[in-house]
């Protein structure tokens, strides 16, 4: 796993990022929501527009949740799970479920 900031408004970076994925692999994206006043991040539905032609988007959500940055406080964020799976890849969901750590409790 790699954690990195990605300039989603730079189409050449997005093309390289998507092209670098091995077949059947995925990208998990989490960002603050500009629409809620964040100084950096993504606008609502921006990730869908940026990645829709290059990856299959399995899940997208915009919500208030505890972020992985900024002292782990609650804020408006967007999350996306997308990959380069084939539409008929029946092994995607079992693989993704095996990565799910289950429900979070407390501050973890």
In short:
This protein is of the alpha+beta class and 108 residues long. The protein has helices at 11-19, 46-51, 92-99, and strands spanning 26-32, 56-66, 74-83.
What does this structure look like?
This protein has helices spanning 11-19, 46-51, 92-99, and strands spanning 26-32, 56-66, 74-83. It has a domain at 24-96. With 108 residues, it is of the alpha+beta class. It has a 3-stranded antiparallel β-sheet. The chain contains 3 helices and 3 strands.
- Which secondary-structure class do the elements indicate? alpha+beta
**How many strands, what sense, and barrel or not for the largest sheet?**
3 strands, antiparallel
- Write down the Rg: 15 Å
Number of helices: 3
Give the number of DSSP strands: 3
Strand order of the largest sheet: 1-3-2
- Rough shape? globular
Stretches with pLDDT under 50, minimum 5 residues: 96-108
Name the helix and strand elements from N-terminus to C-terminus, one letter apiece. HEHEEH
Instruction: Give the strand content.
Output: 25-35%
Give the integer mean of the pLDDT values: 77
Distance between the termini: 19 Å
Approximate helicity band = 10-25%
């Amino acid at each position: 796993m790699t954690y990195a900031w990605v300039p989603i408004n730079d189409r050449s970076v997005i093309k390289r990022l998507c092209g670098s994925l091995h077949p059947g692999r995925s990208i998990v994206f989490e960002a603050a929501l500009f629409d809620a006043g964040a100084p950096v991040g993504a606008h609502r539905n921006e990730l869908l527009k940026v990645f829709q032609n290059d990856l299959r988007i399995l899940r997208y959500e915009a919500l208030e949740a505890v972020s992985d940055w900024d002292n782990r406080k609650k804020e408006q964020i967007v999350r996306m799970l997308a990959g380069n799976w084939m539409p008929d890849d029946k092994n995607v969901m079992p693989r993704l479920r095996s990565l799910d750590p289950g429900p979070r409790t407390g501050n973890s």
